[in-house]
Write a structure and sequence with these properties.
The protein has 416 residues and is mainly alpha-helical. It has a single domain, classed as MFS general substrate transporter like domains (Growth Hormone, Chain: A). The chain is 74% helix and 0% strand. The chain contains 19 helices and no strands. Helix 1 packs parallel to helix 6, helix 3 packs antiparallel against helix 8 and helix 13 runs parallel beside helix 15. The protein is globular.
C-alpha cells in the first residue's frame, strides 16, 4: 500500500504551485498585454477588440486539443513525463510570441502556447491528489491553485515594468515567461512519479482511453457535468474582465478602465478564493456545497457588474475583484473531476476537463457575438453580455446539481 503524504507543503505541492504560477502567467499574459501588443503589430483600434477575441479563441482551441493529447499521454506514459513535455512546448511557444509581427503569426504562436499550457494543471493536480492523503488533498490542490494563480498578478506587474509608452516592451514579457518555464524544468527533477501510476503501469487494464468516457452513460454524465460546472469562470475572465473596458464605455463609467489592471484585481481575488475554498470544503466536509457557495458569489457579482452605469472606474475594479473571488474554485473543480474517475483515466479526465472548460470560451464568445446581431445596435454589446451570463450560470447550476459528492473519496481504484 502506498504511503500518503500529510504535509501540505511537500515537494509535489510546492513544485505544482510554482508550475501553475508559470502556467497562469503565460495563459493570461495575452489578455493583459492584448491592447499594446496588437497596436504594435499594426492593428487599428477597431480591430484590437475583434482580432483580440479571435486570438484568444485560437489559444483556447489549442488548450482544448492539447488537453486531450496530454491527458491520454498522462495515463499512458506518466504524469511527470507530460509535465516535462508540456513545459518545454509552452516555454518555446511563449518565446515565439515575442517575435511575431502579424496577426497570423501571433495567432499561431498563441495556439502553440495553448497546446503546451494544456498539460500543466491537470497532470499537476492529478499528481498532487495521488500523493496526498484523502483528508488533506482538497486543501493541497487549493494551495497549488491559490499560489499558482498569483502568476496573473505577476504578469500584470511585469507589464507595468516593461511595457512603455510605445508598447514595444510587451515582447520582453513573453521572453520572461519562456525563461521561467525552462527554470521550472530544473525544479521538476526532484519530484517523483505517483505511486498509484507506478502500480497502474504493471496492470493490463486500459490506460488513457479517452473513448471510455463516452462508451458508458454514467461516466459520460459525470464527465459533461464536470466540464459545465466551470462555464462561469471563463465567461467572467474571458468576456467580462478581459473586455471590461468596452463594457465600461457602454455603461458610461467615469474614467478609463484598463483591462490588464482589471485582470490583475480579479486574479488577486481568485488566488484568495482558491485557497479559501479548500478550507471551506474541509469545514463543510463537502465539495459540492463549497462550489455552490462560490457560484452564488459569482452570480451576484456579475449582476452587480452589469448595474455599474455611471459609476467610477475604481468601482469596476472592485467588482472585478468580487468576480474573481467567486470564480476562485478552479482547483476544487479540477480536484472533483479527478476524484470521480479511476487511476487509469484520471489524468485524462483531470487534464481534459479544465481544458474543455477553457475551450468552451469560443462557444461562449460565439453566443455573445451572435446575440449582438439580434439586439438593438446601441445596446447590443451590453445586453448580449448579461444575456450570455444568464445562460452560462443556468447551465453551471444544473451541472452542479447532477455532480456527485467526492469529499474524502479513496482514489486507489480503476475504471473497467
Amino acid at each position: 500500500m502506498e504511503k500518503r503524504h500529510y504535509m501540505l507543503l511537500s515537494l509535489p505541492v510546492i513544485v505544482g504551485a510554482l508550475g501553475y504560477f508559470v502556467d497562469v502567467y503565460d495563459l493570461l499574459l495575452f489578455s493583459i498585454i492584448r491592447v499594446p501588443s496588437l497596436k504594435s503589430i499594426g492593428l487599428s483600434p477597431d480591430d484590437v477588440a475583434k482580432k483580440g477575441l479571435e486570438i484568444l479563441n485560437i489559444q483556447m482551441i489549442g488548450l482544448l486539443i492539447g488537453g486531450i493529447v496530454w491527458g491520454i499521454l498522462g495515463d499512458k506514459k506518466g504524469r511527470l513525463k507530460v509535465l516535462f513535455a508540456s513545459i518545454i512546448l509552452y516555454s518555446l511557444g511563449s518565446i515565439a510570441n515575442g517575435f511575431v509581427h502579424s496577426f497570423e503569426q501571433y495567432a499561431l504562436a498563441r495556439f502553440i502556447t495553448g497546446l503546451g499550457l494544456a498539460g500543466e494543471l491537470g497532470a499537476g493536480i492529478t499528481l498532487v491528489s495521488e500523493w496526498m492523503s484523502k483528508e488533506k488533498r482538497g486543501i493541497a490542490t487549493s494551495l497549488v491553485a491559490g499560489i499558482g494563480l498569483s502568476g496573473a498578478v505577476f504578469a500584470y506587474f511585469i507589464r507595468v515594468q516593461f511595457v512603455g509608452a510605445t508598447g514595444e516592451g510587451w515582447r520582453t514579457c513573453y521572453f520572461i515567461g519562456g525563461g521561467l518555464g525552462f527554470l521550472l524544468l530544473l525544479l521538476r527533477v526532484g519530484v517523483l512519479e505517483s505511486g498509484m501510476f507506478k502500480n497502474l503501469e504493471q496492470s493490463n487494464v486500459r490506460k488513457g482511453d479517452f473513448l471510455m468516457l463516452f462508451t458508458n452513460g454514467r461516466r459520460l454524465k459525470k464527465y459533461l457535468a464536470a466540464i459545465l460546472i466551470a462555464l462561469p469562470n471563463w465567461f467572467v475572465i474571458g468576456i467580462i474582465v478581459t473586455f471590461s473596458d468596452k463594457f465600461a464605455a457602454k455603461m458610461n463609467v467615469q474614467g478609463p478602465v484598463d483591462p490588464g489592471k482589471a485582470i490583475m484585481f480579479a486574479y488577486v481575488a481568485i488566488s484568495v478564493g482558491d485557497i479559501l475554498i479548500g478550507f471551506i470544503s474541509q469545514g463543510m466536509r463537502s465539495r459540492k456545497k463549497a462550489l455552490l457557495l462560490f457560484h452564488i458569489i459569482t452570480a451576484l457579482a456579475a449582476i452587480w457588474f452589469f448595474n455599474l452605469q455611471g459609476q467610477s472606474s475604481g468601482m469596476v475594479y472592485l467588482v472585478c475583484a468580487f468576480l474573481g473571488l467567486g470564480t476562485g474554485f478552479w482547483a476544487m473543480f479540477v480536484t472533483m473531476a479527478a476524484e470521480q474517475f479511476g487511476t487509469n483515466i484520471r489524468a485524462t479526465v483531470a487534464t481534459t476537463v479544465p481544458n474543455m472548460a477553457r475551450g468552451s470560451l469560443p462557444l461562449v464568445a460565439l453566443l455573445f457575438t451572435s446575440l449582438q446581431s439580434h439586439l438593438p445596435p446601441d445596446h447590443a454589446y451590453f445586453q448580449s453580455g448579461w444575456i450570455t451570463g444568464i445562460i452560462v450560470f443556468f447551465v453551471a447550476f444544473v451541472a452542479l446539481a447532477f455532480t456527485e459528492e467526492t469529499f474524502g473519496k479513496d482514489l486507489d481504484y480503476l475504471e473497467q
